[in-house]
Amino acid sequence: MTAEDFILKSYHTDLQNGTVKWASPSNIALVKYWGKKADQIPENPSISFTLSNCKTLTEISFTKKEDDGFQFDVYFEGEKNEAFRPKIQTFFERIAVYMPFLKDYHFKIDTSNTFPHSSGIASSASGMSAIALCLMSIEAQLSEESNALSSDSAYFKQKASFLARLGSGSACRSIEGELVVWGANESIKDSSDLYGVRFTESVHPNFKNYQDTILLVDKGEKQVSSTVGHQLMYGHPFAQERFKQAHDNLAKLKAVLASGDLEAFITIVESEALTLHAMMMTSLPYFILMKPNTLEIINKIWAYREAQHSKLCFTLDAGANVHLLYPEQEKENVLEFIKNELVSYCQNEHYICDEIGLGANQI
Ligand code: DP6
Q1: What residue owns the CA closest to ligand 1's atom 12?
Q2: Alpha-carbon span 227 to 241, nearest angstrom
Q3: Are strands 179-182 and 313-316 parallel, antiparallel or unpaired?
Q4: Residues lining ligand 1, CB < 6 A?
Q5: 167-184: pLDDT as tens digits
Q6: What is the whole-number distance in angstroms between the Cα of residue 36 and the centre of ligand 1?
Q7: Radius of gyration of the chain (CA)
Q8: Test site for ligand 1: of 173, 226, 232, most ligand atoms within 8 A of the Cβ
Q9: Confidence of residue 292 (pLDDT cuts 50, 70, 90)
């Protein structure tokens, strides 16, 4: 597929109005996307677990209009929200060529998250993928091209992921589950820079219902956004080596997912998390998103793993929060460990229990 294949060429606008609704999950990367080229093309491939409980619910109502330009209103948790407007405006500008009907309708975008807004959890992946899916459902009603009609079709999902990527890179990995790869690479057949593809290679039962408990260390606004962080990979002294490492780690992870070797899984996942933050610390300007409690938690995890012969490990996204990844059979013990030893490092003792999930749902 090329970007041109996603241009809607033939559509009608007889439809006066309608409403569509999707729930789309967040995802957590195992091999991290950090660094991008123009048009949200990643510098390296990434792979993520799709989550199950952390979701954005988005309803879009559309009404036919006459004048030119984009028209939309955004509501967050029932209240009109101006803060999200610029990101959505940019998103509409980027995707207009693929969805020419965007200027024919006024859109009311009503959105809410299943996780607390102030939790510091990145909502751009779930939020942008939910909007992309809603717009695809509208396209399916207007399209005169048969390939876009069903939300189960490969084209529908691919284009939803393609659009979501143009909203926020990592959002393209939230359409499907349980593992999604984004970025062209040699290990995964049909992988693409343009959209995420479901990881269809063999996955060992060790990873069934894999758990992700998110410890909320810092719920505040980040000092440096992901978008700025990505840009700092331009001219970064270690960039090329890092991009190569991501390809290697993806190849290794593919083998580990098949064999169920949890020791090797831990090594790749924790190394990826620390490398991501090492890139931040060695860019110019340099910055640190981890907090003292992030490090306290990491050290506690290492001590627990050693003492309990556990397969618990951590990963980080672009922030201070810690994702604890572990097999389902360790759930009871790990939750006990969190309650006894880790909640004191969380802001307001707050953490969220999630697990690997199947992707977005139309409601
Ligand atoms: C560290 O997808 O949030 O979470 O494309 O600029 O919206 P933009 O960035 P974003 O970056 C996410 C980076 C990451 C790693 C990952 O999810 O792969």
Answers
A1: 170
A2: 21
A3: unpaired
A4: 29, 32-34, 40, 46, 122, 124, 168-170, 226-227, 230, 276, 317-318
A5: 999 999 999 999 999 999
A6: 10
A7: 20
A8: 226
A9: very high
